[in-house]
Amino acid sequence: MTNLPTLKNRMTFLLTASAAAALGVALLAGCGGKDEDDDRPKSTAGKAAPAEGGAAPAAPAGPVAGAMGSAAVTGKIVFDGTPPPNEKIKMTSDAFCLKAHPGEVAKEEVVVAADKGLANVFVYVKSGVSGTYPPPSTPAVIDQKGCTYHPHVFGMVAGQSLDILNSDATLHNIHSLPEKNEAFNLGMPVQGMKYTKKFDKPEVMIKIKCDVHGWMSAYCGVLTHPFFAVSGADGSFTIKDLPAGTYTIEAWHEKLGTQTQQVTVGDKESKTVGFTFKAGA
Ligand SMILES: [Cu+2]
């Protein structure tokens, strides 16, 4: 087998180009030269490269893997002014839910703390991230508990698993309403049930609702990277592990819209970015 290239060269020299194409393949096949010619299934194997018409071995086709960094963007989301009143609901259509929430309950929409902190704002890097980030191996989780979703707003990486739990002894029907991803619509009649789903494409935001209980809603932001946060009850957020760079940060709220700001962070640097929402803005 070691003299195979020599044999091939000599024959190519002696024969015309067109004849070589036909005969060379036939003869080499007869010599058991499958490593050289059976190139289709293993075209990336190093040995086959010289026979491919002079092209250099191709670089990996996929985008470059993104790096985790040491920078952070933190801040506080504030609601300025008098918050619009949240719609009041009664869970009378389901005895289980009513027991969990007797009387009137305000929908979880514009949730403002005493110090004006605005909760449930999805804050994420909208642009400036380069490279690809694999989805984390740990799943994101949404639980149907007390006839509300926990969490109400959350983020995921495209391709990451989403564990959907039902902690309630009543029927929920979780229904996602994406525009770019595949929807799911799952009846979950039994307490302790779990399904696992994924969103494969980035999409900000995907609404999730319950077809049984009209007051139940959640929002999921799907990104190609892990640089996002959701503001807590006090309105604060932290996006960590960022590589140094200049980024557009967007803050999204289900009723109050979006705002963006640019920020530049260096290695091990933490910058503060604040967002202020107002009614009707
Ligand atoms: Cu439900």
Task: Provide an overview of this structure.
With 281 residues, this protein is mostly beta strands. 12% of the residues lie in helices and 38% in strands. A five-stranded mixed beta sheet has the order 7-13-12-9-10, with no helix packed on it. Strands 1, 15, 18 and 19 form a four-stranded mixed beta sheet that branches. A hairpin with a 3-residue loop joins strand 16 and strand 17 (257-265). Helix 1 (4-14) runs antiparallel to helix 2. The longest helix has 14 residues, at 17-30. 26% of the residues are buried. Copper (II) ion binds at residues 144, 147, 172, 210, 212-213, 216.
Structural class, please? mainly beta
Fraction of residues in helices?
10-25%
Oligomeric status: single chain
**Count of alpha/pi helices:** 4
Task: Round the Cα radius of gyration to an integer and report it.
Answer: 29 Å
Work out the number of β strands. 19
Largest sheet: 5 strands, mixed
- Extract low-pLDDT stretches: 1-54
Bound ligand species:
copper (II) ion
Strand order of the largest sheet: 7-13-12-9-10
The percent range for strand residues is 35-45%
Helix and strand pattern: HHHEEHEEEEEEEEEEEEEEEEE
Principal-axis shape equals globular
Mean pLDDT: 84
Distance between the termini: 76 Å
